[in-house]
Hints:
The protein is of the alpha/beta class and 145 residues long. It has one domain: 3-Layer(aba) Sandwich (Rossmann fold). Helices cover 50% and strands 12% of the residues. The protein contains seven helices and five strands. It has a five-stranded parallel β-sheet with strand order 3-2-1-4-5. It is globular.
Amino acid sequence: MILGLDTDVLVNWAMTGAPHHVASRRLLEREIRKAGGRLGLTPQVLYEFLHVVTDARRFPEPLPMDRARELAAHLWDAVEVERIVPSAGVVHRTLDLMGRFSLGRKRILDTALAATFEAAGVRRLATFNRGDFEIFPFLEVVMPA
């Protein structure tokens, strides 16, 4: 079964000083070791990852962009990773979910991520932001511990 990844889990996994670094590492290692364990990654999450880990306002020692790009490419190409690219139907599904749950502008990207995973058959999502995703009945939120 594929475990979809939210950006916050990847950021914490990559950044040694991040508050949930150890929990993120443990979760991803445990998922990969499961029989057939796969991690679901979308371009959206990978791009946001690049944005966050290179931001000096968020980290005293952000990654240099060259290193962050190398790490992103490594993640995208990892054998344990299922590359999940949004289909054309995800746009309408995102808009439908936003209307159905009366979601505003600050929920657009999370809703699009949820719709992308739903379309790909991914039913589990690792995130530290439970409240952003628990509204979607088709996703089981997995909190790294």
